[in-house]
Amino acid sequence: MPLKTDAVGKTWGPTVYAVGREKIKEYALAVGETNPLHLDHEAARAAGYADVVAPPMFAVVYSAPAMGPVIFDPDVAMNFAMMVHGGQEFVWGPLVVAGDEITTRVECKSIAARDGRGYYVFESVSRNQDGETVCTGTWTNIVRGVE
Amino acid sequence: MNRPRPLQAGDQIPELRVTPDRFLTVRYAGASGDYNPIHIDEEFAKSVGLPGRILHGLYSMAQVARAQTEAGGGPASLRRLSVQFRGMGFPEQEIVVTGSVRETGERTAVVDAEAAQGDNRIIRNAEAELALP
Questions:
Q1: What's the pLDDT at B63?
Q2: What residues of chain B, 60 to 99, have a C-beta less than 8 Å from chain A?
Q3: Which range marks the domain in which residue A67 is found?
Q4: N or C: which end of chain B has fewer CB within 10 A?
């Protein structure tokens, strides 16, 4: 199947995610974090934070509402059955804490065929309520069986 | 105050070992919102040709991240992390995250890392940038 590249440059969002204390704890426990900054709001406050601190990889949680529609967008037309998550990069800014509201926008940066595979690259940019960029994500999905 | 010697090029970061239990993928699905059945439904995973339920790639990446924040002294130390997902990871097998410092700058370090279950390297070519205190 020839690769459809119409979606390059398309943007999605913004979506807004309200960061909750219990969600941070749930995520931190699932990935095995033991640092009390993520689990105990009194420890986080004693360290100078307003509330529990999100582990850096919590970016996948606040980015998810923005990334979900991208994967299923008919303009992108990814063949899910043949898709794998090939690579991921995050660049972090100020830490996210419970109580923050994170706004995320996504852009399709490139779609290219190489060696019978389609490489789909998306960039998510997440900002907090003060307009600071807390995380930029580069998501690479690889789809087998393209020309 | 005594401080540990700062990371230097060639140093290994402390190894991180974790064995995701049988129901980890279910808890991670709930925590992350990724309910793809290849991670939580053994029969579905087998029906699409996998040996069984596989770990979420972003869970494995979170273990690589955790090794960095533990080496760097907390969540603020991790400035950037990029990974490539290759082999599939499985529940109930120990994950070992290793890393070595490639170079250091003024209060920064670049770490090459990987995550493996035995000989199965599930994350390769991970590169982390740490801010040092």
A1: 98
A2: 61-63, 65-66, 69, 74-76, 78-85
A3: 11-19+55-144
A4: N
